[in-house]
Amino acid sequence: MSTEAFDHTERLETALNRRGNPLSVDAFLDILREMSGPASEPLSAGERDFLLEVTDLTEEDLSAQSHEAARIQVAEDRTLAEKEARDSALTTGEVAELLGRQGASIRRSKLTGDLYALPTNNGRSTLFPDWQFDGNRVVPGLRAIIPEFPRYAHPLTIQRFMTEENDELGGRSPVEWLSAGGAVEAVASLVAELAYE
What we know:
By secondary structure, the protein is mostly helical. Helix content is 54%, strand content 4%.
């Protein structure tokens, strides 16, 4: 996964500010949208006919404008979710304070797989998603689970997996399951399914 994609809004804002540009990130992105064309090839006549015949889509839904609006909405939603994930994450110092440990101990925990950290680049500080903390302790069993996350799984996919209810865990999220003393193996077996998403 490209870590640059994960924090592009923040990087763009920094770049604009560094150049003394009075535009907001949103205004700048609006200009880029106006200048850019559709990101993919148009549908063939056969594809159009098929979609109109077997779905509830209309001609308007298949227009280039609708396609572009949907693409922009998906990008904006993803950017917002990524920002929220970063904003709710904790720095090494905050985790050390929360757990009553030294920063070096937190860094070791990251290296040994006891803690999950968001991808970093450009020398930024390490950020730890808050889902892995239950009060002032680490959610039990993460050492067995973190190494099993697919290598290229997006942090939002991992966050969603760890925090959303799962029928296989009695309707509890993996975090709730582990915090309540549930079997680590039950969650570890579900992690393997992330590779197929």
